[in-house]
């Protein structure tokens, strides 16, 4: 497992504030995602976790603070330039193109790649990681199961070839068996040394996968530390997560 204190920082947020027109949703968030690590943000729904990822990828307006990818500031970049800088965002609910095939959806993730050979290599890697997608490559996305759609979303994010893969609640709305399959995929990504910023509601689901966990509430990080430490703090979990 990579050492979060010693690895180079792939993504850093410094006092980030963001919102949608009213009060700030993010209220001065600072965190780092070391290269080769999984950093997880957990907390109740509706408290700004998805806004955090949307702000990093440029989909929600930044009101203050700095965002750095591999040390370079990107907070003034448009969304497509942030993707080019290495930020790959798999949104909640996947947002696939329903009338396009699995293969077409995957290739959309590599729309910035001009090297056909490199795109082919990434596609081979995705199919090796997610062999079901290879079987379904000619099937339209609208006809897939919920778990298959989630896998296409993850695969499309990997096709971008980013330095940081951001996953927004990949287990949302799925059956327990399918959730297990999705997290087996994330475990394999961990073994490959991928850098991941993961958002989840249930800390128990991701504790074994994570290097660092941040507890998020009302647009702020209220606790940070090792996953085992968080899971042993029953009062903290009960206060913010109800158990």
TrEMBL record:
The UniProt entry's sequence similarity note says: Belongs to the ABC transporter superfamily.
Q: What does the record give as the organism's lineage?
A: Bacteria, Pseudomonadati, Pseudomonadota, Alphaproteobacteria, Rhodobacterales
The organism encoding this protein is Albimonas pacifica
What PROSITE patterns does UniProt report for this protein, alphabetically? ABC_TRANSPORTER_1, ABC_TRANSPORTER_2
The name this protein goes by in its record? Amino acid/amide ABC transporter ATP-binding protein 2, HAAT family
Which Pfam families has this protein been placed in? ABC_tran (PF00005)
Which CDD domains does the protein's record reference? ABC_TM1139_LivF_branched (cd03224)
Tell me if Translocase is a UniProt keyword of this record.
Answer: no
Q: Where is the ABC transporter domain?
A: 11-243
What is an annotated GO biological process for this record, any one? L-amino acid transport
Q: Which residues form the signal peptide?
A: none
